[in-house]
Amino acid sequence: MNATFHNATIFTGSELLPNMSVHINYGRILAISYGVLDGEHIVDLQGNYLLPGFVDLQLYGGSQQYLNEHPTAETVRHIYETHRKNGTTSVVPTLYSTSHQVILRAIEAVRTVQRENPFGVLGLHVEGPYINPEKRGAHSLNYVRQPNDSELGELFDQGADVIKLLTIAPEIFSEEQLDKLFNLANSTSTLLSLGHSNATYQQATNAFNSGIPLATHLYNAMRGFESREPVTIGAIFDHPSVRASLIADGFHCDPVAIRIAHRQLGNRLFLISDATFANPPRPELAYEDFIIRYENDRYTNQEGKLAGSSITLLDAVKVCVDKAGLPLTEALRMASTTPAEIIGAATTLGRVQTGYVANLVVLDQALSVQRVITA
């Protein structure tokens, strides 16, 4: 696309600037100026928001297809296209705890689409299977398991270029296994995230200090904060640098809990959709022993547990603004700028800035999508 957007309110990544013009060409932002820029294809945005496309680091499915069920390139493309419609222009498709063979198949599927669409599909998030069974949530007990040295080695041998995030419960690893895992992760682009964990405060703090920079879906699948044992949540709040994802769907976190987390973590907090299906949500899924239904705007399994969400990141932004009372700039940062930084795309995605990839979304004042632009 070769176009100049003027009369735009742009989100730079830190602030909103009104009456701006943005020229894009060959998939990049070439110029930004106050007022009007010359150009052949002028688009008047009439004061609407021009934002960096959202970056979702945890989502399992599109409107119909689900990565665990069908770990194919077609499914990965479907997940991307489903969420792109609502302004999520970069995704990290996610597997919940599954067999080793499914993980290997998903690695190949994501690798194929990464090559086709490197700014749209950024890699794979493997959530489990090395998590604490006491905090497995909706993960299948048939697949949650103790770490296996040969499996870990093969994952990194075959997927080091694809696996961008690996969620684990560090307390179920031996010290030798953790040391090996930290070395493997440090030698690749894989980020470790603490999640589905029953770790004590000290166990979690040790893990963060040793090489785990992230925590997966704050508050959920973690032992609740206690005055005598602050546990994982206390360790996240107390640590100076660990970053945490949060599911703002109106069910996983009360708006007050969102506001408290933002007050504690500031720019270390970011949003994920955790979408099982979305846009629109699929009514039900029965895959192996994972049986879920969509009722009352949420997914639950046969045990009544929440099983992912039914939202896109735009929905999460709206919950943060409308229900939790966060500033729009903070909600937008949590959905774009911070996740782009985390995934290693800080110089290409997550900002409206000269030289950045033109993955952009136009929202009206009611935060409804008017246009999605991708490189």
TrEMBL record:
Q: Which family does it belong to?
A: Belongs to the metallo-dependent hydrolases superfamily. NagA family.
In this chain the Amidohydrolase-related domain maps to 49-365
Q: Which organism is it from?
A: Nibrella saemangeumensis
Cited Pfam families: Amidohydro_1 (PF01979)
Q: Where would you find the membrane-spanning parts of this chain?
A: none
Please give the PANTHER family that the UniProt record associates with this protein.
N-ACETYLGLUCOSAMINE-6-PHOSPHATE DEACETYLASE (PTHR11113:SF14)
**Name of the molecule in the record:** N-acetylglucosamine-6-phosphate deacetylase
Which of UniProt's keywords are assigned here? Carbohydrate metabolism, Hydrolase, Metal-binding
